[in-house]
Amino acid sequence: MRALSPAQSGGRTQHRARGNGTCRLRLRIPSFRLPHSRITPISNVGLQVSISNAFAELDGDWRVKFLFIRDHGSFDLKVENIYIKILLSLGSDTTGKPTISTSDCSAHISKVRVLFSGKLGWLYNLFHSVIERKLRRILEGKEAQSWHCPDASGAHLLPAFLTISLLISLPCVAVTAKIDDKTGIDYSLVAPPRATPKSLDADLKGEFYSLAHRSPVPFSPLPLAFPSDHERMVYFGASSYFFNTAGIAYHEAGALVFEITEAMIPKDVEFKLDTSVFSALIPQLEENYPNMPMKFRLSTPTAPFLTIGQGGISFQPIVDAQAYAILPNSSLAPLFLLSLTGNVSAVINVRSGRIVGSLDVGRIRLSLKDSAVGTFQVEFLQSIMNYLTSSVLLPHLNARLGEGFRLPLPDRIQLSNILVRFHQNFLLLGADVRFQPRG
């Protein structure tokens, strides 16, 4: 006897007997419950899925044609106290996607009840106990192993087993995600997942890249000494490699360019960004560009490189600040180019599934790289540049960082009870996980 899949039979499960007879069966599953299920990590193996006290209620229509016997009717089938134990081996393929296979499986069913209707239904019901024992042996036997003990592809999985379906879908998950219109992140596996008695550990690449052009990262990730803490349900370690590849990706995408204009200066501050402010320090401005509005364009000649320690995140970015005079026809006249350096520290947190942060900048150091208005002492510009950085540039940067960057979380997964700790070379995020159902 050969069983056809629902896709082959147009939504019906059919059985065709040998010879001149046929048996057609249409099956529906109006009720299926998994009141008790548990996933347990098994060291050096993978995961053990245990389902207990499950219940399935099925009904359908049947039609028999064999020699002189022709009959049809319906049936109701209840399967109670289903116990299933599956041992899953976890791995990864060459693309970094997780793989899963079944290494062991067992099943037990306490009770099967069936009731037939139809012209000969009374006859079948006389033998219901024999039929029920036969069905239970079939469901528990090797013939049914392909139904409740799926292989890695999930091709023979009974759709009602939703818990196992989630695990089987792991090989189909994406290993890259788009962060915004400029960058994406690669979080493919760099090694197979490792099971311990208390956890399941996975090493992810955690590499940002530019959507316009992806180039090799010029440095390697540093090893992480992950703490043995199990107070939260899930822990996520974001290494300095994670943040530094983000700096490279945004630098390559041309996103680390900022402009400071007159419109960005707070209205309650008596400061005008024009040549008259700088003319006392640079006499040629008054001669060539009297009382003209100005603007600064800030860019990074190289991607910023940060370090992470127990005290937090710190880095010393190098920023080029090009000053322009805005001519009456709205064209720009380059004035001078400054190089700005300083100590920057960052505060990181997680809010609503996003990594958010804020920056704090120490005293700025200046040097003159180029000038179209003659040489001058850059020390005289120190207070002005400190003001523009702390009062204009920093609030705009922190507003963007406050919007955050989305964590690559599955749909409808929410984090709570979040903790953030700094360790050598990485930031540790811990959280409890909650699944938010639809509607």
UniProtKB/TrEMBL annotation:
<dbReference type="Pfam" id="PF01273">
    <property type="entry name" value="LBP_BPI_CETP"/>
</dbReference>
<feature type="disulfide bond">
    <location>
        <begin position="105"/>
        <end position="149"/>
    </location>
</feature>
<dbReference type="GO" id="GO:0050829">
    <property type="term" value="P:defense response to Gram-negative bacterium"/>
</dbReference>
<keyword id="KW-0732">Signal</keyword>
<keyword id="KW-1015">Disulfide bond</keyword>
<keyword id="KW-0044">Antibiotic</keyword>
<dbReference type="Pfam" id="PF02886">
    <property type="entry name" value="LBP_BPI_CETP_C"/>
</dbReference>
<dbReference type="GO" id="GO:0045087">
    <property type="term" value="P:innate immune response"/>
</dbReference>
<dbReference type="GO" id="GO:0001530">
    <property type="term" value="F:lipopolysaccharide binding"/>
</dbReference>
<dbReference type="GO" id="GO:0005615">
    <property type="term" value="C:extracellular space"/>
</dbReference>
<dbReference type="InterPro" id="IPR032942">
    <property type="entry name" value="BPI/LBP/Plunc"/>
</dbReference>
<keyword id="KW-0964">Secreted</keyword>
<keyword id="KW-0325">Glycoprotein</keyword>
<feature type="domain" description="Lipid-binding serum glycoprotein C-terminal">
    <location>
        <begin position="228"/>
        <end position="431"/>
    </location>
</feature>
<dbReference type="InterPro" id="IPR017943">
    <property type="entry name" value="Bactericidal_perm-incr_a/b_dom"/>
</dbReference>
<dbReference type="GO" id="GO:0031663">
    <property type="term" value="P:lipopolysaccharide-mediated signaling pathway"/>
</dbReference>
<protein>
    <recommendedName>
        <fullName>Bactericidal permeability-increasing protein</fullName>
    </recommendedName>
</protein>
<dbReference type="InterPro" id="IPR001124">
    <property type="entry name" value="Lipid-bd_serum_glycop_C"/>
</dbReference>
<keyword id="KW-0929">Antimicrobial</keyword>
<comment type="function">
    <text>The cytotoxic action of BPI is limited to many species of Gram-negative bacteria; this specificity may be explained by a strong affinity of the very basic N-terminal half for the negatively charged lipopolysaccharides that are unique to the Gram-negative bacterial outer envelope.</text>
</comment>
<keyword id="KW-0391">Immunity</keyword>
<feature type="domain" description="Lipid-binding serum glycoprotein N-terminal">
    <location>
        <begin position="2"/>
        <end position="213"/>
    </location>
</feature>
<comment type="similarity">
    <text>Belongs to the BPI/LBP/Plunc superfamily. BPI/LBP family.</text>
</comment>
<keyword id="KW-0399">Innate immunity</keyword>
<dbReference type="InterPro" id="IPR030675">
    <property type="entry name" value="BPI/LBP"/>
</dbReference>
<dbReference type="InterPro" id="IPR017942">
    <property type="entry name" value="Lipid-bd_serum_glycop_N"/>
</dbReference>
<comment type="subunit">
    <text>Monomer. Homodimer; disulfide-linked.</text>
</comment>
